[in-house]
Each structure stands twice: as C-alpha cells, then as structure tokens.
Amino acid sequence: MLDILHLKKYYATQKAVDDISLHIxxxxxxxxxxxxxxxxxxxxxxxxxxxxxxxxxxTLNGEHFSLQQHSKQIGYMPEERxxxxxxxxxxxxxxxxxxxxxxxxxxxxxxxxxxDKLDMQSWKNKKVEDLxxxxxxxxxxxxxxxxxxxxxxxxxxxxxxDPVNSSVIKEEIYNLAQKGTTIxxxxxxxxxxxxxxEEIALMNKGQLILQGSVHDVKQQxxxxxxALQVSKPIEGFEQVIKSQSGNRxxxxxxxxQDADKLLMHCLQQKNRIISYHEILPSLNDIFIHLVEGGAxxxxxxxxx
Length: 304
Description:
Blueprint: E1 2-11, E2 14-24, E3 29-33, H1 40-47, E4 55-60, E5 63-64, H2 67-70, E6 74-77, H3 89-99, H4 104-117, H5 133-145, E7 151-155, H6 163-178, E8 182-186, H7 190-196, E9 199-204, E10 207-213, H8 214-220, E11 225-230, E12 241-245, E13 248-252, H9 256-268, E14 273-279, H10 283-293
Parallel strand pairs: 3-8, 3-9, 6-7, 7-8
Antiparallel strand pairs: 1-2, 1-4, 4-5, 9-10, 11-13, 11-14, 12-13
Helix pairs in contact: 3-4
C-alpha cells in the first residue's frame, strides 16, 4: 500500500532522514518508533507531502506520490494540536471535512455518526479553547478519520486521554484497520506498540536500525530466559537460576538440555509444575538496548 524507497532529507549538515526504505501493507497497523530527534516527524512530513524529499521516492497504492492527487487519501493527526481554538467544535469539524472533499451533507452525516459513537454531541457548540487536552485529542482524531482516508498517520494519538477514552480510540483504530485502512502509529509508549502494532520500524539519528513483525523482533532478541513456578523449592540447579521469589524462579539456560533436565528433575521429585513459560524481552528493553547500547551497529544485523 505504501512503499518508501531510499528516502533522504537533509537540513544543512544534519541528516534528518538518511536513506530509509519501508514497505507497509494495506490494512496493517505499523509502528514507527524512535527517540526524540530520530527523524520520525521528518519522515512523516514527507509521506504527507508537507515537505519534499531530497532523494528517494514514495509510492501510494502503486502510484508515485503526488500531494495534489493523494492528499485526500491521507489522514494525518500530528502530535502538536492543529485546531482553531476560537472556532466551535461543530463548525470546525464541518469546515475541515469539506476541505477534504466531503459535501456539506456528507460532512454533517459523518460528523454526527462519529460524535454519537464517541459521545461528543454535547460538545458541538463549545469552543475548542474550552476543551480539555483529552477532549481536544478525541476531536482531532475524529477530524482526521472523518473523510475515511486509506492511509491514516497517528502521532501520539493517546496523549492526554484517560484509560477509558484510550480504550475507545484503540477499538476504533482496530475497526479502521479491519476495514482496510493502513495505519502508521508513531509513539514513545512501547506498551501500546506491543499491544496494537503488527510490524514496527525503529529509527535513530535518521537511520533505520530495526524493522520486522513484533513477534519476530522479540524472538530475535530473546535470551533463553524462562519463568517457572513449582510447588516446592528446587535444589541442585543454582547455575541456571537468575532469581527466586518463594517457589517462583527466573531461569536462564545456555543449553536446551539443561531445561529438559530441570523439568525431568521436577517430575521425578513430584514437584508439581504450576506454570512454565519463556520470558521474551519487551520492546522497551529492545529499544533501550539498540538506541543506548547498540545504535552504532548496522541495520542489517537486526532485520527480522
């Protein structure tokens, strides 16, 4: 659906985006990650046509990207609020929907549908400046999706939302993806990425240092750690025990046979195994490892 090929953007001597290539499938939820200054916003601005690349190409639905041709197919929700503070909520929603090509009747119908869905009808005559941060975030989300874009770009969409409204917006993101909308999700919140995204790309200092499915990335960085809970203490396997809390153990094996021996020992000792599972690294752990400890390594070492 979206192909980014050897994209570059330089500002004076700074390489904001340095030879980035990505393929994002239709209907997928794609996580774009990276610390501040990694180049995420510069990349997204080129995808939306706000700025032009210095080199490389962007293809949307098999066509070379053109702002004039494709702008109405894109919905972009930036991290910074882009609303007119003194306009009323309903007036602003109608105005921006019509800028995206909807007729007045279409805009009114879509607005009412979304306002009903997200419990926003009572906001219509309020000015944007009177809304809380969370209410403004919900409004900006509605304005972004109202024209039914095929490519939806969300930059920190849950900022300012309470857990209830975060759950509501999350459910709508899933619904849009199921209907075929391609979603790029940019955030610093790793737990949200693990829960929502199917594939991810990690940027640092303008370069792509990792990409792949969430599952494959976590498998690639696993360290043979396991969690075991048994009915009574284990004896004789101190070399594989990383930590212990009662009869709960964190284990790390260097040899798969050690795992088999330990489990067989528990069975022979009639030590009931209550739970046993592999501990995979969190995306937050991988993120810190690569950005702080391994950012200088080549991307090809990490492609999943």
